[in-house]
Amino acid sequence: MRFTILLSLFLAFIAPFSASAQDNADKLLGIWESGNGKARVKVEKISNKYYGKIVWLREPNDPVTKQPKMDKNNPDESLRATPLKGYRMLKDFVYKNNEWTDGTIYDPESGSTYNCVIKMKDENTLEIRGYVGVKALGRTDTWKRLETKK
Amino acid sequence: MNTKALLLFWLISPLLLLSACKKEIKTTFSLNNVALVAEGPLTEGSNTAQGTVKEALAAFLKEHNLTPEQITNVKLTKAVVHAPDSVGFDLVKSITLQLASDGAEMVEAGVVNPVPAGAKMATLQLPAEPKNMLYTLKQNTFTLVADLDIKQDTSMNFPLTGNLEFEVTHH
Amino acid sequence: MGNKSSFLWAIFALFCPFVLLSQTPQDTIAPATEEEDYSQYDNLGFADQGAKRYCSPKIFGLSPQRFVSVAWDMQLAHDARFSTIGAYDEGDNPPVAETGRVRSAGGLRLGANIPVVSRNSILWQMGANFANTAYDIRDIQRVTSDNNSVATALNERGLRTAGLNTTVFKPLGEHQFLLFQGSADLSGDYTFSDMQSLRYLRYSAAAIWGKRPHDRKQWGVGIARTYRVGEMNYIPVILFNWTSVNRKWGSEVLFPARAHMRYTVNPRQLLLAGYELEGQSYRLNTLSPNERSLEIRRGEMRARVEYQRHLFHFVWLSVQGGWRYNWSYNADYLEDGREFFRGFTGNQKYAMLNELTNPLYFNVGIHLVSP
Fold first, then answer.
1. Looking at the predicted structure, is the pLDDT value of residue B137 above 90?
2. Mean pLDDT in chain C?
3. Contact at 8 Å (CB) between B88 and B131?
């Protein structure tokens, strides 16, 4: 009986914080525009991780082939037919310590995948840092949240 | 060391060496009829269909009397996606398939672009350098994620069925 | 000055057509096809009304930017002739003090370039570099009884340069930017156990205003204070980076410091051809009496072909081969170590007029590259 009461009190104390942490993690969900305005990425949640896929490209067609852009720089030749629109360039992010970490970002221009960490500067601004090995050796891109035009 | 002992050593050593090298066996393993659905309304462009697979390896391990530790590699050898009979893949330009799980990295399974006109099933082009999917399949649950490039807006759900074939390497 | 500035103009003329041609209206990316419907993601605006877009410091197709570099640079055999120390005008024919056969000159080169602040609105990088030139001079013939043996000093101690640099890229919106570079270099025949005073640091800087009209072109104009031809000078600079529509061809130009044409074999292999000017003012500590600094104004023009290749992860290999043209190996006395400005028209005397013949050279490096 005593244990049940203690457990209930403990859960009642913990629950709001857990819910709050989850709310914060889900703030990443939505549509974001990359710093150079060339791509818009929709962040979704699959199970307990966050993934981002390209849903819009400023230049959706290859200027040479005039066809929708594909992942032609992928190091795996067999995957070069993957369309860029819909491409999951952000993968496997987990929310920890007020940031989304342990994920990767893919650069279709080079076909390279980098370690990545995402921080939310404010509700509408993300700092996406792709790095090589250590965070000091990287580059930060600022993404802005998008919403339907009024 | 006398001659007899030396002879015994040279006779036994190869046997010991051979027994220490565990023989690797390759077995085929299939995950059939994995249900995925892209929930409508669907818009022109990229949409996602997802399906959950629970305890993917359980039946295989039981059938072959194996433990998870005995498996060293799981390689995807075939991926086929089926569309609903009534619709086919007429609305779908391309399909990219991935396996996602909490305990492992997202892994590309394959792509078909473009989906052949009038097709009701699509066999995906697999990666030339397939990644080891063991860690994904070992998870209690993983999600099969199909990114579909849809040709036009539609209000309906789009269910798919996925059939995956793997080559499992184990001791 | 005449021959060398003519050479510079010739190089400019060689690259001019590429500059001009790529400015023509035809070289624009194809517009998106009108019939494409981008779906619901087209009609979106920033949630944050004050948000701005900024241009990137890079364009498509550029050779990878390097975080850390380790390279070995070596010039092959060539001849050297050192004059006596005196006071000479550039065209003079001073007495020869020494001659020698330089069997090799070169050594280790290290570089690092790390972002300190890396945001869309500003990029600030700090870097460090080190280059060692060890000389192997044989058959040293002393023509005069002058005790000042530059050849011996070079043979025994070599020359080295170490410096710190900083770069700031400030975009002014989507299509314009400012670029600042500054560096401080310590160059001489010092060793790490017998260091040169920091009062002999030499400073360089450049400021460029530029435009990035689209993802495959970036150009700018500016001014630089530079030691690239050995002695301090102020010169205009032109930046021009360009990549063709099919992403195969391109240029990477920061004229007159360097200019290369680039051919992309594939995203993991590049070929470049062009030239680079290198230079520093090297103090010969062993031959500098009191505070009077004898400094070799070493400037080189390296015409080369370079092959760059991705090895694994973010590590790239570069292999350069080419011809090293001696721009200057003259020496100046700097009173109290203080720099003076000669420029293209100054008539200050040289302390030595030296000559080196022009050998082939090679450079092999391993680099950790940036995202």
1. yes
2. 88
3. no
Better pLDDT: C49 or B110: B110
**Alpha carbon distance C227, C258 (integer Å):** 13
Q: Which residues contact C152 (CB under 8 A, 6 or more apart)?
A: C140
What are residue C309's phi and psi, to 5 degrees? -145, 135
Phi and psi, residue B102, nearest 5°: -70, -35
Q: Is C153 helix (H, G, I), strand (E, B) or coil?
A: helix
Selecting from A49, A70, A85 the residue whose C-beta is nearest the C-beta of B45 gives A85
User: Would you say residue C268 has pLDDT above 70?
Assistant: yes
Total of domains in chain B:
1
- Spatial strand order of the sheet with B141-150 comes to B104-112, B92-101, B141-150, B45-54, B25-38, B158-170, B71-82, B121-123
Is B80 a member of any domain?
yes
Q: Provide the token pair at C51.
A: 């948000």
Q: Which helix (H) or strand (E) holds B19?
A: helix B3-20
CATH architecture of A2-146: Beta Barrel (2.40)
A132 vs C368: CB contact, 8 Å cut-off? yes
Query: Which residues from chain B sit within 8 angstroms of residue A87, using beta carbons?
Result: 96, 147
C-alpha–C-alpha distance, residues C316 and C367, integer Å: 5
Residue among A49, A83, A85 whose CB faces B100 most closely: A49
**Amino acid identity for residue B78 in this structure:** K
The residue of chain C nearest to residue A39, with distances taken between CA atoms, is C41
* C256 preceded by a cis bond (ω within 30 of 0): yes
Question: Which helix H or strand E contains C97, and what residues bound it?
Answer: strand C96-118
Give the whole-angstrom CA distance, residue A130 versus residue A137.
Answer: 9
Residue C19's pLDDT band, with cuts at 50, 70 and 90, is: very low
Exposed, middle or buried, B75 (CB in 10 Å: 0-12/13-18/19+)? middle
State the DSSP code for B68.
G
pLDDT at residue C35 in the model: 32
How much is the ipTM here? Answer: 0.82
Assigned domain for C35 exists:
no
Half-sphere exposure (CA, 13 Å, Cβ side) for A35? 20
Question: Would C19 be classed as within a structural domain?
Answer: no
The answer to whether A46 and B50 have CB atoms below 8 angstroms apart is yes
What's the N-to-C CA distance of chain C in angstroms? 42
Q: Per the CB < 8 Å rule, is C36 touching A146?
A: no
Domain range for B110: 24-170
